[in-house]
Amino acid sequence: MNTQQKLLWVFGGIVALLALASAIGWLLQRRKGPTEVIRNLNARVNAWWAMVAVLGACFWLGPIATLVVFAFISFFALREFITLTPTRAGDHKPLAVAFYVLVPLQYWLIQQEWYGLFAIFIPVYGFLGLPVLAVFAGDTEDFLERVTKIQWGVMIAVYCISHAPALLILNLPGFEGQGALLLLYLMLVVQISDVMQYVFGKLFGRHKLAPKVSPSKTVEGLIGGGLAATGIGTALWWITPFTPLQSALMSLVIVICGVFGGLALSAVKRSLGAKDWGSMIEGHGGMMDRMDSVCFAAPVFFHLTRYFFIG
Amino acid sequence: MMVRGAAATLVGLTRLLVGARADWRAEPSTQQSLYFANHSSHLDTLAIWSALSPEQRRVTRPVAARDYWDKPGLRTFLSGRVLRAILIERRRDAQAADPLLPVFAALEQGDSLILFPEGTRTAERLPQPFRGGLHRIAEAFPQLQLVPAYLDTLHRSLPKGSHVPLPLYCTVRFGAALAREAGEARAAFLARAHQSVVTLAGGERKASA
């Protein structure tokens, strides 16, 4: 099977799953009426159709389109992060640079396949440059807190998320030009893990995992959803350069990082005084509510794959 | 046709850039209204205008400063034809007649208005004390609904002195129309109007907290 055929098979599977989810949602609404939970469920499924359509269009149009879409995802995620962060007039310059320079630059570096600079630009030059841009405003009140929050937003929303489409330029020996499959693999395992945790939590959830941080997460959801996602990831070994066992381990790592990302970013969100990051994706909240697991899973998956499989 | 296209484009661009989502804390007003808000950036007028429903927008005109909006080219087209702004004179020396006369004329025609009672932009999240114009309008039009609004992120998006707007999501919070109190003194009325906007602002999330 070539890359195209593999992509088609996987997308066919996703569409079948979504059709099943839509059918279940429709049946539930007919049986039990439009309760709060069912309405939210159906809104989520509909949003999934839209997200899958966008991702599908990316793969169909090629790497440039994928990079542009992920650049916008970073842009919207950073927007939500900074909107919730109480910045001051003196932060205007570093913020303008973050939105209008760092986001396009980071994705341009991927497009150029300039790995050396892609991997360090934000952690080194962004980290050091942002406080320099802020200092000229001459406002020292809460300076460390303000700069730290901008650095955090840029690291999470731009640097971390950009590692997902960076999989496109990982030219693994014997797997050249098939980076799109790795990206699809990552996104599928992360998002299926989120969905399965939600489903298992709603069906069997008894014990809250972290009631203060993320009240909807349950231990039963975590274990059931995590195992299901790891299983599905393992079963997808044939689209990756991994053996089934390696694929199981990679999926497990992706699931665990995703859970950690969801929890840590939920705590960040709550410390900023919000329940949702935004209202962009119907039923899900904001872009960051959907990407929080990817933020943590993408860089780890990228570097593990690069370290062990570059040969 | 061109004007309607320009209006739709303007609303679309404003939403794309700063969100401008409406958050009605009370029933949206259906009568002739005056929306008054805190003023912190050149985007304020467009943000409130874009947050209103199409029906409200059709009858609502912003009150704006002549020295900013009456520049030849795009600004005149936008303020004159698209926003149908009521341009008033801010500079004292140019104020031969009462600067509020065109405002009264528009209200007599039944138009709703957007007004920034501080008169000028402030870099802070809370508004400065209101100037007297709002009181004169309220006295002259006792039936007018005085609807407070608060713009929550625009003082950060485009603070005074900056030229590049940041794409933060702005929510426009509309409150309940001010109750009218017969015989209320000017200062008390202005303080109450000011407080209604401050209340919509809510508490600050401190950067260090």
Overview features:
heterodimer; A: 311 residues; globular; B: alpha/beta; 9 helices; 7 strands; 38% helix
How would you sum up this structure, described in words?
The complex is a heterodimer of chains A (311) and B (209). Chain A is an all-alpha fold. Chain A contains 11 helices and no strands. In chain A, helix 4 packs antiparallel against helix 6, helix 6 packs antiparallel against helix 7 and helix 8 runs antiparallel to helix 9. Chain B has a single domain, classed as Glycerol-3-phosphate (1)-acyltransferase. Helices cover 38% and strands 16% of the residues of chain B. Chain B has a 7-stranded mixed sheet with strand order 1-7-6-2-5-3-4, with helices on both faces. The longest helix of chain B is centred in the first third of the chain and has 17 residues. Chain B is globular, with a radius of gyration of 16 Å. Chains A and B meet through helix 3, helix 4 and helix 7 of A and loops of B. Chain A: One of its GO terms (molecular function) is nucleotidyltransferase activity. Chain A: Pfam families: CTP_transf_1 (PF01148). Chain A: Keywords: Membrane, Nucleotidyltransferase, Transferase, Transmembrane, Transmembrane helix. Chain A: One of its GO terms (cellular component) is plasma membrane.
